[in-house]
Amino acid sequence: MAEPTDDSSTFVHIVSLEYLPPEEPFPLLNLPRELRDIVYGYMMIRKRITVTVGYCWADKAKGNKKRFDLRVRERRRTAYQRTLAAGEQYASYEEMKYGRRKAWNYPNLNIFLTNRQIYDEASAVYYGKNTFEFPAAGRTNKVLSVQACHAFLQDRPPRSLGRIKSLELIIDNPSYGRECAAWLDGDVLVPLVEFIRDELDLDRLSLIIEGWPPEMRSSPWDWMGKCNFNSDKPRKWVGALARLNNLKSLSLTFEAHPEGDPQRIVACARFLRSQMLNNGALLGSRNIHAYERHCSTQWRQINWKACDVFTRERQRIYVVQCHDDEHGNSLLPPKAHPEPRLPGIKALRVQKGHDPFEVERAIRNAYQGRIYVDLPSIRIFCDEHDDEGREDDDEDSSSDYLDYDLGDDGDDDSLLSFALEEDDSVYVRDDEYFDKFEEHEQTGKPCTTG
Fold first, then answer.
1. CA distance 450 to 432
2. How far apart are CA 311 and CA 74, in angstroms?
3. What is the pLDDT of residues 225-251, one digit of tens each?
4. Where do the record's region annotations for Disordered lie (predicted)?
């Protein structure tokens, strides 16, 4: 065998595509399957494939088509109907075009059209190696992400469904003070969970759950949230999720208004983890992080100019998180003061080599003059209110202003972690609830107790 050469020009000549006549395609199928999978991975593995919600028009929908995000008829893509004050609208899903991200970052799915063999091999990589996430996007509400996920899965062929291994989903709520799944219980969330359980061979699931979960530290469970718009009616989503078990990895994030005992949220997280994750019952309250975070509002457009600006609100919310695998390992960062949700604009620009003093002066000028032209695609925390009319001794107001990211670029005040007590978060199983839930599954009756 010839000895390797150190001549870089020889190496370049060896791998040069000049060896292939320009009219001849690269013989991909002549490569071993292991190498083909590597090629597919470079083309399609992006860790997360974002599938967004979009309003679409259908034969039954009337109005200005330009207002809708999608141009796909119902017969080509599963759509669902939503009744609003403005009338009936149809919504569906679409894969996010990654906005301002570079075009090369978008997965190259055109290879699916080559032939059946390549489609079969490439789809196994695409569906099996990516996480499909369904966040809020566009003019729609986050509440539609569950329906978008269900529509997306229903349109996959059975072989592709069996290859999907990882999903990330938001269970949205109209208010952090409401009970969980106030808009999504029963007719929306339960059918999706049942579809996942019956049709998918899922390994990893990530859930972001907004609102107050039921009080599970005593039986029967108390389903009331923390505001005046709550219902004490038992919700079916808990029973449905409890039957979605044998997961190899589970991530749970609860977000709720800080009016109540956070241990109640921890108890619900412990219960769901014990039911859904392999060996999850052995973890107890281990690997659960809890803290308070400032709320934030995202602005897609300011003065009719596109931007990506986040403004901080004074209100805080409870955040309870756990992310574990079936071996009991926590996949969260080590428990410490958590990092801010979004990096500061000052830190981002300094990392790119800009002078810190010039950056701070430019940001102050932009903030004071409300000149957002320089801020497209830059995520920035800034005070939501003007500084006029504030008292100097108003600690909360000055704290909010410092959190704007100038005097406190590290965002130290945005997250407050707190300790958890094992004995204060022990859940009690509500057997009556699950008896009624099983009865509902068999007869279709409402899931009510008492």
1. 9
2. 37
3. 776 666 778 888 899 999 999 999 999
4. 386-408
**Residue 31 CA to its chain's centroid (Å):** 37
Backbone angles phi, psi at 307, to 5 degrees: -160, 175
Residue 296's pLDDT is 63
Q: Are 379 and 440 in contact (CB under 8 A)?
A: no
Q: Which of 309, 296, 302 is nearest to 400 (CA)?
A: 296
**Distance in angstroms (rounded) separating the CA atoms of residues 236 and 434:** 9
| Distance separating alpha carbons of residues 250 and 276, to the nearest angstrom | 8
Q: Which residues of the chain have pLDDT under 70?
A: 1-24, 53-77, 79-105, 136-143, 174-175, 177, 182-186, 227-230, 294-314, 335-349, 360, 362-417, 442-450
How far is it, in rounded angstroms, from Cα 177 to Cα 255? 10
The token duo for 22 is: 């320009």
For CA atoms 89, 90, 93, 98, give the dihedral sign.
negative
- Work out the angle between the directed axes of helices 33-44 and 116-129 (0-180°, nearest 10): 60
Summarize the chain as % helix, strand, coil (round to 5).
Answer: 35, 20, 45
CB 55 within 8 A of CB 89: yes
Q: Following DSSP, what letter does each residue of 316-348 receive, concatenated?
A: EEEEEEEEEETTS-B-SPPSSSPPPSS--HHHH
Number of other residues whose CB lies within 10 A of the CB of residue 357:
8
* Whether the Cβ atoms of residue 242 and residue 430 lie closer than 8 Å to each other: no
β-pairing verdict for 80-84 and 131-134? unpaired
What does the pLDDT read at residue 298?
57
Tokens 């013989």 belong to 27
Provide the H-helix boundaries in 302-430. 345-351, 356-369, 395-402
The 10 Å Cβ neighbour count of residue 345 is 24
- Give the containing element (helix H, strand E) for 129: helix 116-129
SS3 254: strand
Q: Which of 255, 293, 305 is nearest to 142 (CA)?
A: 255
| Cα–Cα distance, 350 to 373 (Å, whole number) | 19
Q: How far apart, in whole angstroms, are the C-alpha atoms of residue 203 and residue 166? A: 6
Do residues 151 and 94 touch, judged by C-beta distance below 8 A?
no
pLDDT (0 to 100) of residue 309 = 52
